[in-house]
């Protein structure tokens, strides 16, 4: 029934990528450009006594050196990030000065010539130290190291009563590590002074052009319209190309304004690991109460996320966590508290999942522990408690049949059936005693995920669709392509609505002077919100075209159909016009506008700040997975053999791209579960490049069988909802559960690396 | 500290001969990107781990960040820009990468295609394990490698058939 | 990137002369996979003036059979060693080790001579070369000297070679007919990862199944790569039993602690080396 959507068409940005022609930030060069580099802190926490830039300034070819003194506007950006640290460095990635020179070689030499005198200070380096009041403060104005607005809670039912009703109560603590998004393209920025606007134009690997624009304007003391941000092709971001890029853009913009020359700043991988955001490390205390038959009656949790020195995400990350922390289960009594803390370490930000990888690891490990305690199978306990049609979430939101789907029961049963879960699980328990040191294990996990921003912010999105005289179509969105396939999904939606072939459509890079601010490209909202905006814009144009075509074909508008580049009367298909003929008549004959803007907004969600209750999200996506692995009990090495996963996403605009999102999410989820860890030692970063921060290679990926479940969820465009983040969060708990199945060892801390699996603890130098 | 004397470098890149005078401490990666404008060669880590800077040098895939420019004297180099035919026809690997969804952010794609090309030149019918082995030095953060492996299989099949 | 001048001599003699002339002010480059990282981080001494590229010298690029010896030029890449027929036939342990170094790209570039000079305790080829009792041919100007590979190491990342010396060749005796060899690599990631531990072994049994030849070397265990003689002595001349093999593993773990002290990683490495020794020997030895 659909012509373009729901089909695995070729990505519209594939050609430039397979030919190497796509221009990423570092590929852009301008005449007379300067090369800029940041001088980073030497200590995780120290007073800056003196910055001596003279020697660097004397080096031939150095054009500008800036420190905090040179910031014309506000030195402090959203989340307390200083463009350059002024009196104090609060973590090892703080910039203290920036240098610009005629060449990359000169600037590399110059940064070594900046002399900074420090007075070392004691610091707080982990959650425990941050909470302990005797350990000092990261920010002098914040007594308890709690990140502002980062405490989010959920109160549902009567938690004390709930635990009284329970036959079994378990209390467990789970911990997760910092990890880096580890996109293969390091951050790159080029800032061009714009004499007309007396401002700047910024190009580069920018995930969120509008927030960068606002922050840079504040730093420069300019109006927003004096700063223009144009997104280059982005080599992966996953939430990461935000704060670091904001800092680079701000520093480069100051230099560009000062020198009147274009400024290029490209991070090395080491600088990227040092300065870019990480997935928050976390410590989650859970208490769960259940009846003997497996019915969960109460969940109480207390989760701390480690925010690092500065933070502009914990307040949002933690809100999402508060909605999902009790898992995809119908539980009458819930008490959830999530807090974020400052530490003198690298900082937490957005990374695909946005709290889900941490809390789903905790919660889905806990459910298995509960099942074990009750001597019920992991499948049965989930089936018994999982959200079903008509159930009420902890927030009070009801999963109304026909409005919000609740397919978990079917999905859990399907992945279990496909993998023969229960019989293998029992068999592997028996084999724990066998002679063979290589043990097999199988593990289950399931999840639900609020689609889009929900109550976290306004989920509005913009789109502009413009048809030109030759029938070609330009589409623009305020949301960005980072590799996820959003442009292709948007183009498919527009092509479907207008009844044209996909080759007519080109996509315009996000440019803040042309496209409308519709918030950041986060929360898996590109297709959900952005696609809806495209749908609205395309439908407006279709109306205009059909109005004209009805006159041209002398028929009723309602009888017109657009398909295959034709507009025809469905009652008499011989009565037809080419799409181009109608376009020509509209533009040239009638002088109509064939440019339309789509503005989608689901409206603000209302939640109570006292209880956290309300309709948190318009709808939810779901996932269930089974992992089969083997573990070498003599070395602690886990080999994941196979993953069978199902994801409910409404409708796949492009099934091939959707699957690609899940395969990639699975990779990042497995990396998180097994090998990835940003290690800090007393605030110093130990993992500096890909030889220390290990990400999965082709040899680390198992067989993957992904099933897409479609539903009649009405929220998204053509019923499509969120995809991007869902793949990742099921992996760590399924691996931990499978490891338990194989060995009888429960490990509550990630990653499940060699030492932890063998010894139950990690070893530190 | 020594000064960087310029050295003469004669290389053949994408079937074209070049005589360059370059600073002696440049890497092959810098020469390709900065002097020849071949920005399809990417820099990801600069320590020979990620494979984004992969090029084919004298028939072998190497990390161009791990080669001093002078070491490429007399070498024949192929970058992603050298894969298209004279009329812009894409190589079967490029076509296959587009068709199977092997491309997401695209940053690893040039290196990934070049490592796959070396494989298929030496082994027209690789097994899945052999494909994994061939691309094990090219990190991809987006795809989970599955659709990349499918692309290499598809291209291998078409190249064996001589259809393209 | 550090500054330097780049010289590519036409032959080995010229390279040797340059090195004698420049000494500390020169560095050789073959594969360059370690050197270029150091240059980028500006970790080489400030006196560095020239990089001498010997990566294309034909005189250093050979694998040949000469009587009872196999000779490998120091410019040969890991990939060539991994796939070479002579090596596969006469020293399979080296082929196995070379085939798991880094990534295909690194194997196409890196050399065993580079592995030796860098002297990383985690290098994959070194334990294999150690169990082959390899000998280095070293040149200084026109003079040649030989030394056992095991004697070249002074400590982690340290070799006792003079700055004007070039390693030209690595050679070893072919493994005798009937000798078996094995190699195991343990790493966190399944490709492109430095070894957490690696083990190379050679073993031979006579027709009574007694062990007549045994050589064991383990990487990442001791400051200097070496053969574990105590464990070898325990096995030599004996009829291997599971018990005996376990004792050998225990001996090696003890030796590790004696030589390296009880370090942060010992708690992990001690049980793991025992298990892996067990596994690697059981892979080639017929046990009673």
Q: Which features would summarize this protein structure in a list?
A:
heterotrimer; B: 164 residues; alpha+beta; Ubiquitin-like (UB roll); DNA polymerase, domain 1; 2 domains; 5 helices; 16% strand; globular; C: 288 residues; Uridine Diphospho-n-acetylenolpyruvylglucosamine Reductase, domain 2; Uridine Diphospho-n-acetylenolpyruvylglucosamine Reductase, domain 3; Enolase-like, domain 1; 3 domains; 5-stranded antiparallel β-sheet; 11 helices; 34% helix; 24% strand
Summarize the structure.
By secondary structure, chain A is of the alpha+beta class. Chain A is built from 19 helices and 31 strands.
What structural category characterises the helix and strand content of chain A? alpha+beta
- Average pLDDT of chain A works out at 96
* Rg of chain A, nearest Å: 27 Å
| Beta-strand segment tally of chain B | 5
How would you describe this protein?
The complex is a heterotrimer of chains A (765), B (164) and C (288). By secondary structure, chain A is of the alpha+beta class. Chain A is built from 19 helices and 31 strands. Helices cover 28% and strands 25% of the residues of chain A. The model of chain A has no long low-confidence stretch (mean pLDDT 96). The radius of gyration of chain B is 16 Å and the shape is globular. Chain B is an alpha+beta fold and 164 residues long. Chain C folds into three domains: 49 residues, Uridine Diphospho-n-acetylenolpyruvylglucosamine Reductase, domain 2 (2-Layer Sandwich); 116 residues, Uridine Diphospho-n-acetylenolpyruvylglucosamine Reductase, domain 3, CATH 3.30.465.10; 103 residues, 2-Layer Sandwich (Enolase-like, domain 1), CATH 3.30.390. Chain C has eleven helices and 13 strands. The interface between A and C is medium-sized, with 24 and 19 residues.
Give the arrangement of secondary structure elements.
The complex is a heterotrimer of chains A (765), B (164) and C (288).
Chain A: H1 14-18, E1 34-40, E2 46-52, H2 54-58, E3 62-66, E4 88-89, E5 95-101, H3 104-111, E6 115-120, H4 127-131, E7 152-156, H5 159-165, E8 168-176, E9 179-180, E10 188-194, E11 199-204, H6 209-220, E12 227-231, H7 243-259, E13 263-266, H8 269-275, E14 278-279, E15 281-290, E16 296-308, H9 314-324, E17 333-342, E18 348-349, H10 356-374, H11 378-385, H12 408-419, H13 421-431, E19 438-450, E20 461-467, E21 473-477, H14 486-498, E22 505-508, H15 526-553, E23 560-563, E24 566-569, E25 572-578, H16 579-589, E26 595-600, E27 620-632, E28 637-648, H17 655-674, E29 680-681, E30 684-685, E31 703-709, H18 731-743, H19 754-759
Parallel strand pairs in A: 1-13, 11-12, 14-18, 16-17, 21-22, 28-31
Antiparallel strand pairs in A: 1-5, 2-4, 2-6, 3-5, 7-17, 8-15, 9-14, 10-11, 10-13, 15-16, 19-27, 20-21, 20-26, 23-24, 24-25, 27-28, 29-30
Helix pairs in contact in A: 6-7, 10-11, 10-18, 14-15, 15-16, 17-18
Chain B: E1 6-13, E2 16-23, H1 28-35, E3 54-57, E4 60-63, E5 76-78, H2 92-100, H3 109-122, H4 128-134, H5 146-161
Parallel strand pairs in B: 1-5
Antiparallel strand pairs in B: 1-2, 3-4, 3-5
Helix pairs in contact in B: 2-5
Chain C: E1 5-7, H1 12-22, E2 26-29, H2 35-40, E3 50-53, E4 63-66, E5 69-73, H3 78-83, H4 85-90, H5 92-98, H6 104-107, H7 112-118, H8 125-131, E6 135-140, E7 143-148, E8 153-155, E9 158-159, E10 166-173, E11 180-186, E12 197-205, E13 211-219, H9 229-235, H10 242-260, H11 266-282
Parallel strand pairs in C: 1-3, 2-3
Antiparallel strand pairs in C: 4-5, 5-10, 6-7, 6-10, 8-9, 11-12, 12-13
């Amino acid at each position: 029934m659909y012509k373009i959507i729901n089909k695995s068409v070729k990505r519209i940005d594939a050609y430039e990528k397979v030919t190497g022609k796509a221009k990423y930030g570092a590929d852009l060069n301008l005449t007379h450009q300067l090369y800029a580099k940041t001088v980073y802190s030497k200590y995780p926490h120290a007073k800056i006594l003196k910055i001596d830039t003279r020697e660097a300034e004397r080096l031939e070819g150095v054009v500008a050196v800036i420190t905090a003194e040179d910031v014309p506007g506000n030195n402090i950006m959203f989340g307390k990030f200083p463009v350059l640290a002024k009196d104090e460095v609060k973590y090892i990635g703080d910039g203290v000065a920036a240098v610009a020179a005629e060449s990359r070689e000169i600037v590399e030499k110059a940064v070594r010539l900046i002399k900074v005198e420090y007075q070392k200070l004691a610091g707080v380096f982990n959650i425990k130290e941050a909470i302990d009041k005797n350990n000092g403060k990261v920010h002098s104005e914040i007594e308890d190291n709690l990140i502002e607005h980062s405490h989010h809670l959920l109160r549902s039912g009567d938690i004390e009563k709930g635990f009284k009703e329970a036959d079994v109560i378990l209390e467990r603590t789970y911990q997760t590590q910092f990890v880096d998004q580890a996109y293969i393209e390091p951050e790159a920025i080029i800032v061009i002074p714009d004499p007309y606007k007396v401002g700047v134009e910024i190009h580069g690997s920018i995930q969120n052009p509008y927030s960068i624009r606002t922050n840079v304007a504040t730093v420069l003391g300019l109006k927003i319209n004096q700063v223009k941000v144009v997104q280059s092709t982005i080599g992966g971001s996953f939430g990461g190309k935000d704060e670091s890029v904001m800092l680079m853009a701000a520093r480069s913009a100051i230099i560009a304004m000062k020198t009147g020359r274009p400024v290029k700043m490209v991070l090395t991988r080491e600088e990227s690991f040092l300065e870019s955001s990480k997935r928050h490390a976390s410590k989650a205390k859970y208490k769960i109460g259940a009846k003997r038959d497996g019915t969960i009656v109460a969940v109480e949790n207390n989760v701390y996320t480690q925010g690092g020195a500065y933070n502009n995400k914990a307040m949002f990350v933690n809100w999402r966590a508060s909605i999902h922390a009790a898992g995809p289960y119908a539980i009458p009594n819930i008490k959830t508290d999530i807090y974020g803390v400052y530490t003198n370490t690298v900082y937490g930000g957005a990374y695909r999942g946005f709290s889900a990888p941490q809390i789903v690891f905790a919660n889905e490990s806990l459910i298995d522990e509960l099942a074990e305690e009750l001597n019920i199978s992991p499948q049965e306990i989930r089936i018994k408690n999982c959200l079903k049609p008509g159930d009420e979430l902890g927030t009070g939101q009801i999963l109304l049949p026909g409005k919000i789907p609740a397919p978990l029961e079917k999905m859990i049963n399907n992945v279990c059936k496909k993998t023969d879960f229960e019989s293998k699980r029992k068999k592997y328990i028996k084999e724990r005693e066998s002679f063979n040191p290589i043990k097999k294990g199988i593990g289950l996990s399931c999840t639900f995920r609020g689609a889009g921003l929900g109550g976290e912010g306004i989920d509005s999105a913009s789109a502009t669709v413009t048809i030109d005289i030759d029938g070609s179509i330009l589409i623009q969105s305020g949301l960005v392509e980072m590799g996820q396939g959003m442009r292709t999904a948007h183009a498919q939606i527009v092509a479907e609505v207008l009844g044209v072939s996909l080759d007519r459509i080109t996509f315009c890079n996000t440019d803040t002077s042309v496209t409308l601010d519709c918030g950041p490209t986060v929360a898996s909202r590109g297709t959900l919100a952005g696609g809806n905006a495209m749908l609205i814009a395309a439908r407006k144009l279709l109306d205009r075209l059909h109005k004209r075509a009805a006159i041209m074909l002398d028929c009723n508008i309602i009888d017109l159909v657009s398909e295959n580049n034709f507009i025809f009367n469905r009652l008499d298909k011989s009565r037809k016009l080419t799409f181009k003929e109608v376009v020509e008549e509209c533009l040239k004959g009638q002088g109509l506008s064939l440019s339309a803007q789509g503005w989608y907004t689901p409206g603000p969600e209302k939640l109570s700040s006292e209880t956290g209750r309300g309709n948190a999200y318009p709808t939810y996506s779901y996932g269930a997975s089974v992992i089969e692995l083997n573990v070498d009990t003599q070395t602690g090495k886990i080999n994941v053999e196979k993953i069978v996963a199902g994801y409910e996403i409404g409708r796949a605009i492009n099934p091939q791209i959707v699957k690609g999102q899940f395969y990639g999410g699975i990779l990042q989820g497995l990396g998180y579960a097994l090998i990835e860890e940003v290690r800090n030692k007393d605030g110093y970063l130990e993992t500096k490049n890909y030889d220390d921060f290990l990400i999965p290679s082709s040899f680390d990926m198992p067989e993957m069988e992904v099933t897409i479940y479609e539903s009649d969820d009405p929220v998204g465009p053509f019923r499509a909802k969120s995809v991007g983040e869902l793949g990742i969060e099921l992996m760590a708990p399924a691996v931990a559960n499978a490891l338990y199945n194989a060995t009888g060892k429960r490990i509550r801390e990630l990653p499940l690396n060699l030492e932890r699996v063998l010894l139950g603890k990690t070893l530190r130098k | 500290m020594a000064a960087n004397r310029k050295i003469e470098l004669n290389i053949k890149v994408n079937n074209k001969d070049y005589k360059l005078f370059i600073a002696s401490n440049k890497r092959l990666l810098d020469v390709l990107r900065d002097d020849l404008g071949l920005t399809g060669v990417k820099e990801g880590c600069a320590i020979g781990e990620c494979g984004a800077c992969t090029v084919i040098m004298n028939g072998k895939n190497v990390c161009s960040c791990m080669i001093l420019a002078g070491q490429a004297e007399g070498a024949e180099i192929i970058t992603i820009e050298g894969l298209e035919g004279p009329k812009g026809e894409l190589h079967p690997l490029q076509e296959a990468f587009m068709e199977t969804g092997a491309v997401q952010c695209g940053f690893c794609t040039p290196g990934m295609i070049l490592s796959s090309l070396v494989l298929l030149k030496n082994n027209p019918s690789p097994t899945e394990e052999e494909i994994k082995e061939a691309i094990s030095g090219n990190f991809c953060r987006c795809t989970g490698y599955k659709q990349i492996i499918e692309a290499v299989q598809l291209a291998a099949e078409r190249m064996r058939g001589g259809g393209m | 990137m550090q500054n330097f001048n780049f010289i590519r001599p036409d032959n080995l003699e010229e390279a040797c002369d340059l090195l004698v002339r420049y000494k500390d002010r020169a560095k050789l480059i073959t594969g360059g996979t370690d050197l270029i990282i150091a240059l980028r981080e500006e970790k080489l001494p400030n006196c560095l003036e020239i990089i001498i590229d010997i990566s294309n010298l034909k005189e250093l690029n050979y694998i040949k059979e000469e009587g009872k010896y196999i000779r490998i030029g120091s410019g040969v890449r890991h990939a060539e060693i991994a796939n070479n027929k002579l090596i596969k036939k006469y020293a399979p342990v080296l082929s196995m080790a070379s085939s798991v170094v880094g990534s295909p790209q690194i194997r196409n570039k890196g050399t065993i001579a580079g592995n030796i000079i860098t002297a990383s305790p985690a290098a994959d080829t070194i334990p294999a070369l150690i169990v082959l009792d390899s000998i280095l041919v070293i040149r200084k100007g026109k003079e040649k000297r030989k030394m056992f590979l095991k004697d070249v190491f002074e400590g982690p990342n340290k070799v006792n070679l003079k700055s004007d010396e070039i390693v030209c060749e690595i050679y070893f005796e072919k493994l005798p007919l009937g000798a078996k060899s094995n190699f195991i690599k343990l790493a966190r990631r399944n490709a492109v990862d430095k070894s957490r531990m690696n083990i190379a072994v050679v073993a031979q049994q006579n027709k009574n199944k007694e062990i007549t030849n045994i050589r064991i070397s383990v990487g990442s265990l001791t400051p200097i790569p070496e053969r574990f003689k105590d464990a070898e002595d325990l096995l030599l001349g004996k009829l291997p039993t599971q018990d005996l093999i376990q004792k050998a593993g225990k001996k090696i773990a003890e030796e590790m602690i004696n030589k390296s002290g009880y370090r942060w990683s010992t708690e992990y490495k001690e049980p793991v080396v025992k298990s892996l020794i067990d596994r690697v020997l059981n892979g080639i030895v017929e046990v009673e």
